[in-house]
Amino acid sequence: MHLLLSLAATAALTAIYSVWLGVTNPTIVALSFLLIVLVVAAVSRRWVAICTSVAAFLCFNLFFLPPVGTLAIADPAHWVALFTLLAVSVVASHLSAQARHRTDEATARRDEIARLFDLTRDILLTTDTSKAVDMVAGYIAHRFRLDGVTIWLPDAGQWQRHHSGPVPIEIEPAVLDRAIGEAVARIEFDASKRAYAGHTVDRAPTGAPVSLVPLRLGTRPIGILALRGDSLEPGARDALAGVTAIAIERAHLLEERKESEVVRRGAELKSALLAALGHDLKTPLTAVTVAAENLTAT
Fold this sequence. Notes:
Layout: H1 2-20, H2 26-43, H3 46-64, H4 76-124, H5 132-143, E1 148-155, E2 158-163, H6 173-185, E3 189-190, E4 195-196, E5 200-203, E6 209-217, E7 220-228, H7 234-297
Antiparallel strand pairs: 1-2, 1-7, 3-4, 5-6, 6-7
Helix pairs in contact: 1-2, 1-3, 2-3, 2-4, 3-4, 4-5, 4-7, 5-7
């Protein structure tokens, strides 16, 4: 669509200058074509701007540089103007594409931060410790629009599976063992990817690619996060894994707190029970003692 509009604008400018206004000054024509290319480069992709610059290059040569109507150029100085137009158009489109790429990248970073913030809020509002890890997997799938999320945690030589949705991501235990082993062996941080080493890609039984990201608490790996259908960069996956590891540790702490609370309440009940028994035993003994004293006094 953008290409058709840009070519239509180039053809319209050529018709206006050559037929209607009769403009023959190469400088005015070249600057007008350059303006069209700059606008196209600012609002569309690089290849569209390059195609527009080539079209402007041909129209400028064919309709405004003598001999008109041919691609030949009589004056050598016009070659300089022609290639200057093409060079400036290509450079401008390249710079515009770079600026647009950086803008898109900044927007993607902003969206990632917003999703991580929403995920953190969901985790903090979770109070059910019995299914906290499964709920975290569901939060991740919802916030980042993933096809499937499964959290694998090692436990006494086995792998515990926590997943979102009815169908978990099936991964062979040998693959998980290898992934956690690589995470233990390599703890360096890649500044360009904004991620720790150890990210791998595996295939689910259905053939879909699955990203395996180590869950690190600090630099210590505590599990594997399996993501299916993700288009996240390594830095975003690593940040997501870090938040997930913190959520798992929080769930464990809440469970320990609940157990300690149960122990404390049990101790309070025992103390109250012993106090009640002591009072019940003490009351009859007091009555007997008073009666004996009364008999002695009489």
